[in-house]
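This protein record is not my work; I was only asked to verify it. Take the sequence as given and treat only the tokens as open to question. I have pasted the whole thing underneath without changing anything:
***
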Amino acid sequence: MANREPLLKPIPIAELRPTQMTVGYREVEEKRKRWREHDPDKKAAFLGSHMIPTLLGPKKKHYVIDHHHLSRALQEEGVENVLVTVVADLHELEKDAFWTVCDHKSWSHPYDAEGVRRDFKDIPKAIGDLVDDPYRSLAGELRRAGGFAKDTTPFSEFLWADFLRRRVKAKRIDGDFTEALEEAMRYAKSPEAGYLPGWCGPVTG
């Protein structure tokens, strides 16, 4: 893998290409709130320290491989450009070969809001077109509440989202998120979640 080289030239968020199909809108709203709470004088420094990792793909387009939620939040807050750091230059590959590499390197997550794997051509072409997966929001909130630890496993929170999708009813998330989070916490501490990245083990004592 090539060394990450930050680009000094800002890239418009509108030109960034996603490598996943969904985000948790509740998670996006949380990041928007935190952005608004930042001291205006420190926002530039924040952007400089939160560069977006990308792949340089076909036609030299930048494909985001992390921070989709942050990118979406910044875009909705009116930020037009971000600095990116290129993880790998794959621009000479044909599109099908590009996606094959992404798949094998765990740089893409082509699963829809139902947790069903889709064709790579179904991945949105823009950050603004990412659709909501409430279970991804639930997983993000669960991690912040101590349900599991942050982990370097690619798309670890999507793995948790899929785990919760099979156990917590969608109408509960829509109707009472706090209650859904409490239920998710019980499942997170159970032995059946032991295979998931960042599992903290059952509560004892």
